[in-house]
Design a protein that fits this description.
Blueprint: E1 6-9, H1 15-26, E2 30-34, H2 39-53, E3 57-60, H3 67-81, E4 86-89, H4 104-132, E5 135-140, H5 153-173, E6 178-185, H6 191-204, H7 208-216, H8 228-239, E7 250-253
Parallel strand pairs: 1-2, 1-4, 2-3, 4-5, 5-6, 6-7
Helix pairs in contact: 1-8, 3-4, 4-5, 6-7
The chain binds nicotinamide-adenine-dinucleotide.
Length: 260
């Protein structure tokens, strides 16, 4: 057995995925980063995390819309590190638009990246986890996996689907030491959220500042954005031995949003 556990975090070149990747690396795991972006920025993050956390960090640019690339991502991570102990399905995109105008191509892309990619990564990683009697699968759903907001039909549908997948895999892994849970963040100020402010302003006839105050933070009783560090800390706990009895859950980290 390898002396360190290893984790794959999809969509970890930015935002929440990068925060989770850093947190897992600092808990002592080797890491496979994934996602798009500027190659110099990605390399800088890769070397910085490796040196600060003292673990091996590799980068794989697999496209989460492409099942062949997803299978290769899991195979190559297994070859590099010996095992994939922790799989974090985090890659995601958003599009905000009323249903009448919602582009079909955006629906297809959101379903592919936010939902189907998790099916493909889990299908590829699950057999070895089951055989070793250990695995931790963490899916990034959203408060929008539990409740809806208007103008986000594809995203809300995909995230509700992620919760169904999470429960199913939890049952299939339950007797094999493999847990599967979903984290459901509220609004975290990442590029994904910043990019949807102008479209939400247009769809709702508001200024961008009104969107932040009256739509985003209005959803969260704390009136504060969730931080990537808060989500990363939960991922580290779910990945730990102590979380062995937590499976099939959808855990909100949302400042009280879905309690209302
Ligand atoms: P982000 O835009 O900062 O990061 C998204 C990541 O996904 C990036 O690394 C990007 O390169 C990657 N990605 C996009 N398309 C990809 C593809 N085809 N193949 C591989 N990688 C791809 O977004 P974020 O806010 O950090 O979101 C991360 C996850 O958290 C998403 O699943 C999102 O739905 C979820 N989430 C975010 C919030 C929030 O408020 N930011 C709230 C709830 C849930």
């Amino acid at each position: 057995m390898p002396d360190r556990q290893s984790a794959i975090v999809t969509g970890s070149t930015s935002g929440i995925g990068l925060g989770i990747a850093e947190a897992l690396a600092h808990s002592g795991m080797n890491l496979t980063l994934n996602g798009f972006g500027d190659s110099d920025d990605i390399e800088a993050n890769r070397t910085r995390i490796a040196s600060e956390a003292g673990v091996d960090v590799r980068y794989d640019g697999a496209d989460m819309t492409k099942p062949d690339e997803i299978r290769r991502l899991v195979d190559d991570a297994t070859t590099a590190f010996g095992t994939v102990d922790v799989l974090v399905n985090n890659a995601g995109i958003q599009h905000v638009s009323p249903i009448e105008e919602f582009p079909e191509a955006k629906w297809d892309a959101i379903l592919a990246i936010n939902l189907s990619s998790s099916f493909h990564t889990i299908k590829a990683a699950f057999p070895a986890m089951k055989a070793r009697k250990f695995g931790r699968i963490i899916n990034l759903a959203s408060a929008h996996g539990l409740v809806a907001s208007p103008y986000k039909s594809a995203y809300v549908a995909a995230k509700h689907g992620v919760l169904g997948l999470t429960k199913t895999i939890a049952l299939e892994g339950a007797e094999h030491g493999v847990t599967c849970n979903a984290i459901c963040p509220g609004y975290v100020k990442t590029p994904l959220v910043e990019a949807q402010i102008p479209d939400t302003a247009k769809a709702r006839g508001m200024t961008e500042e009104e969107v932040v105050q009256n739509v985003l933070l209005a959803a969260q009783p704390t009136k504060q954005f969730v931080t990537v560090e808060q989500v990363g800390a939960l991922a580290v706990f779910l990945a730990s031995d102590k979380a062995a009895s937590i499976t099939g859950t959808a855990i909100p980290v949302d400042g009280g949003w879905v309690a209302q």
